[in-house]
Amino acid sequence: MSRQAGCNVWLKLENMQPTQSFKIRGIGNMCAKAVVEHNAKRFVTVGDTNAAFAVAYSGRQLSTPVSVFVPTNAQASTVRPKIELEGAEIVENGRTIKEAYDAACLFVQNNEGAVMVESADDISVISGHSTIVSEISIQLQRKEPAAIITTIGSGGLLAGIITGLHQCRWQSVPVIAVETHNTNTFQQSMLFATDQSDTRISNGGSGANINSSKRAGNDPDKKPIVGVETSKKLSLLPPLEGEPDVDSDTKDSTNGKPTTRTDMESTAQLYGRMRSGNESRQPEPTVATCLSSEHICSRALELSQAHPVVPISVSEAMAVEACRRLLDEHQLLVEAGSAAALSIIGKGLVHQIVPGLDHESHVVVIVTGGANINFDKLESYRQRFPYPAPIIAKSGHEIFMRMIDAAQPASNCTTSAATGSLSTSSVNASPAHVLGGGPLTKNKTDTAASLTPVPASK
């Protein structure tokens, strides 16, 4: 991958977590706090998903029973047997996932000590997800990456990544948030925010201008496919050391006007419209089930206004191709939705989004994982989608298409197959690198902080 991309590509393998996805980071943190701080007696969640798998695992580790509500007669996902193996109770109730959710909420209300575990907006969940960035910082020996590529579903992971980046003082590192075309709720939300902001500005109105700072990337003469450009004047993150806090006297860097309370209120209203604009959107049938979400959590939308974030959507065929290539080249099988992030590397789009990458640049791809995959599903994808897949990517209001891959330029990256840990100088020794994921327990997290460079596929 690194040779093909012409830069050092790192894979943060969250599929190696005990529950095979990043979900255990945030959900494990929330569940542990619920037991220690609130004496939780039972965890309740909805849907036989990767999140429910993480809840079930956490419940077993914390000796706390778990109830997973699912619609009656709903087809079981491939994750359900894993959830049951962890000892969780499957409760069938309602005809739809919404009815199952309502039943779960009623159960929590009527049972003292029961806690509803949701995987997006909770601050404990976001805090847990933020640890992924602190691990990356250690594993890269504090070298600042040129970009972090991740997929986005409901937005909890994105919120955690941005939070972690600011904690590591990497607030200028762009995040490329990848979805598929029929799961692009985040992309639609950000387009709505951009259009609304542009309309207010063109009408002479005040408010947060999300188009006031430079785009992601270091080359001022070359623009990425899209940049959700951000303004720091309404940063919702705590100020870093030496930075002034945001208050009513903060000056707008573009026009010298103070940012008023009215501006902040109008921005909050904008976030509300960004959410409500997608709440009526029903998820379409997709192979990227882990990315399917009716709306994005409010914290992710807020933080995306305070950090360079590049929303981009790719075709399902591109996601499936990346899934197959990860299996062929690294013998790792993940959900197609998770692999969508890798399609940005495999198809060379990363150079369009982040100009100026070279053999000294580091790009980290979060392989979010997911247990809802098996060989039967992969075979059905193989029969359904073309291989190799044509490039069809959407960014902003633009669509980038190419029917065949152009020849990839040779990289200056070395091709040593040497294996080393972070204490050695092997970061650049191999053009394909693997970053281990950190499990729930602290001792395992520490031992997982090493990495194994893998030879690039030829």
TrEMBL record:
* Residue ranges constituting the Tryptophan synthase beta chain-like PALP domain according to the UniProt record: 2-202
* Top enzyme category: lyase
Q: Where is the composition biased (Basic and acidic residues)?
A: 248-264
Which reactions are catalysed by this chain?
L-serine = pyruvate + NH4(+)
The answer to whether UniProt assigns keyword Lyase to this entry is yes
Q: Which cofactor does it need?
A: pyridoxal 5'-phosphate
Q: Which GO terms describe its biological process?
A: isoleucine biosynthetic process; L-serine catabolic process; L-threonine catabolic process
* Entry's Gene Ontology molecular function annotations: L-serine ammonia-lyase activity; pyridoxal phosphate binding; threonine deaminase activity
Keyword Lyase present in the record's keywords: the answer is yes
Q: What is its EC number?
A: 4.3.1.17
- Gene3D superfamilies xrefs: 3.40.50.1100
From which domain of life does this come? Eukaryota
Keywords, A to Z, come to: Lyase, Pyridoxal phosphate
What InterPro entries does the record point to?
A: Ser/Thr_Dehydratase, Ser/Thr_deHydtase_PyrdxlP-BS, TrpB-like_PALP, TrpB-like_PALP_sf
Region Disordered: list its residue ranges.
197-267, 433-458
- Which family does the record claim for this protein? Belongs to the serine/threonine dehydratase family.
Protein name per its UniProtKB record? L-serine ammonia-lyase
